[in-house]
Amino acid sequence: MEQIVSFRITPPDTDQLCPQVSRALEKRTERVSRQEYPKMWELIDKLNGVEKAPFAVRENRRKRRAFLGAWEWAMGLFLLIPGCMDPKELLVPLMIGTFCYGIGAVSLWRNKRTLLGVLSLIQGGFLSLCVLRGRIPGGMGLLVPAVAGIIIGIAALLRRKREKESPYDRAARQLLQGRASLSGIEAVRVSFTKEGLAVEQEDGCEEERQMVPYADFECVLETEDLLLPIYRDSVMVLQKKDLCTGDLSGLKEFLSGQIQYVPVMA
Predict the structure, then answer these.
(1) Given this model, what pLDDT does residue 186 score?
(2) pLDDT band at 120, cuts 50/70/90?
(3) What pLDDT does 205 receive?
(4) What are the distances in angstroms from CA 90 to CA 81, 94, 97, 147?
(5) pLDDT at 239
(6) Which residue of 89, 102, 223, 247 is most buried, as measured by CB atoms within 10 A?
(7) Does domain 5-51+183-263 have CATH number 3.10.290?
């Protein structure tokens, strides 16, 4: 690499770049773990080698199960309500309705928990209103499905599935926010030279230049928008859009011959 490749440092967009940094940090942890526990990862790779259905197929299955669950829930409720109003005469519809309602509720709980919560609260509120008005013969029997609907609805909404932030997400967010909060980073220039990674102030004196030899590098991770050099247990965040001189393809070819260069693409 005859031409020096250099980057300016600009504040990163934390929300946009956090998923990429999180993925890169997870990949780095996996690489370290693979080196320390090769036999364990050999077993994990064998288990993960089992063929899985594509994501689109699995998503269609989930939607189909949710639709069938909603249908069973509705049909069960249709039979359950008259059965509760006259359980002696309509014992068979009551039993069938209870079974279908339960199966539908379980299916919605697994696949569409929020929908189950909303439908159940509507069920509980409507049946409670019918009981309070007392204008329906045998209406007191509706008290059981009314209370059940309210309880299921509240439980479903309180325990609905949410995306949990992983430790890598938290670490990535902290890393990016730390870089964004630094003052004067726009005046810093980072350059890849034949000797190593140079960090210096633009228009600064030669004595203030810091050089990190490639022997101190662990690896360089590449994502869609970033280069992440890792050295001395530190992570530097370089945005591709901040490239000043040189070209990325030449830099990649050069670094691949010097250190571990690991693409981490989605």
Answers:
(1) 83
(2) very high
(3) 57
(4) 10, 6, 10, 21
(5) 96
(6) 223
(7) no
